[in-house]
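=== RUN LOG ===
request id: a7f3
mode: sequence -> structure
chains: 1
length: 263
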Amino acid sequence: MRTDAVVVLEGARNCRDVGGYPAASSRRVRMGALFRSDRLSALTDDDLSELGSRGIRTVVDFRAGPEIERDRSRLWPGVTSHFSLPVGDTVDGDISLVDQILEGRLRSVSEGDMAELYLRMISTYGERFAQFVTIAADVDHLPMLFHCTAGKDRSGIASALLLEALGVNRDVVLDDYCLSNELRSHQRIKELTPQFAQIGIPIDNVRAILSAPRRVMASVLAELDNRFGRAGSNGTHAGAEGYLLAHGLNPAALEMLRANLLI
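=== RESULT ===
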């Protein structure tokens, strides 16, 4: 596990620096510029001081309205920009998949179901993911933290798109996605197992929704390659880049992203 990247907080489990990864042309993603996290509603005063000490001045929230109402974010004084880019993660209005399981409305969620959910998010909210990368490309918004509720699905997609656009190797991008298992999912599964057992649902039937399965993100990125990948003089460009450009990312912003975030 990348202990150097983890931001240890009391009120959030899945907060970490997205920098430090090797990228194309022997460069690396700048550390201290991009952070990802789960929800910020339970941050303690010490947590706020910790995040403030890192100079984070921009927060991007991928949660939808009902989630925000339930869990109002606590922000530190240094935050000067707070962007709401809601990306829905439900299949039935405002009721999350986990809530549907606990209510007995769903009995299982497979990795295939999760991949379909991710692809549905990507298909529906392409402009918002492109806007997110545009915000990250602006040096005036750095350092920046982006988050959702669990910090693994919507934030996982956003991180994967961003890292691929920066030229980070696919296996490393998948490693970053799976780090959520170590930081949050394993504990979350342990907490929820007794509740699911009470309603007769084996944890393995729903493990995919509670974790960050490598095969899910791998299949999603492969699908983007199929749809948006292109061949160029320097080889095949990952589909994430084409996807972002097709949904509104300006090529100049893509170049600025690389100029500001690669060292």
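=== NOTES ===
The CA atoms of residues 34 and 144 lie 5 Å apart.
The mean pLDDT is 92.
=== END ===
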